[in-house]
Amino acid sequence: MSFPAPDYRHLARLSDDTGLFEHARHAVVRRHHGYCTDDVARGLVVASREQRPSRRLTRLAECYLAFLTHAQDGSGAFRNRLTFDRRWRDEPGVGDWWGRAMWGLGTAAARNHSPWIREEARLAFALGAVRRSPHPRAMVFAGLGAAEILRTAPDDDVAAALLKDAAGAIGAPSEDPSWPWPQPSLTYANAALAEVVIAAGDLSGDRQQLDTGLHMLTWLCAVQTENDRLRVVPATGRRPGTPPDRYDQQPIEVAALADACAVAALATGEPSWQKGVRRAAAWFQGRNDAGVPMWDPATGGGYDGLTEHGPNLNQGAESTLALISTMQHAGRLS
To answer: Which InterPro entries has this protein been placed in (predicted)?
Structure first.
């Protein structure tokens, strides 16, 4: 199966000179929902991964970076929600949005094509890296940003300390062979947990930690694959001993799995991990439980979820960014 190149048309449609709108009704922006740091950070990740960005994509990256630096306070924490009239609805904190902001900043600092973006992102990342979150997933997302920094600056002690703490925040995998997962349930962005353990082991030279992360990802891929197609954990999650629901499957789960498999392939040099990336890209193309495409070729937008009645036709930021991220990885397959 061939996969389309990443399509940024809908991402541009969702963006203005302030940031990235969170929601859309079908392909039309719902401005009254405003912006959130979570999605702007995801936007900075995908924009910074492009090695030959267009002028429009560079402008989007600049916009997203300006949003994040505006959201950040002097302690390194971030606000999350901004209304359409540019009023913050919350106080700075270190929830998931802090972690995703750190992921976006770390990716921009390490990979963005423009040196001025890399420099500003590095300063904001360093400020945020002094903080820690009590929430494991927030730490995981921040750890992914730290890993990006370390791949280009292996002597960065601040990033190394953050990545180490991020992997430690997950906890040890269960000794139950039927549930070798460090948490009592699968919830959201699950593969990111395995990815940060893999990255921590690979970048520190800790083979045991690397193997732990690879084992976690192997199990997660197995429980989310049936008949060589993905059936990812739905929005309701999954617990041991209970039959999994088939719906509502979320694009963020598919993208997280593609991210983790791409990092596993990078860490091990084993092409077999590319199967996970192919399955993720194929899920968007229609190789899923409903047999329907999960994106709109007319707009370039990703659909918000796979329900028992077919795709949720709304094309919000999270799902569109999940589509773009997955196709970025698919485009690099050998």
So the answer is: 6-hairpin_glycosidase_sf
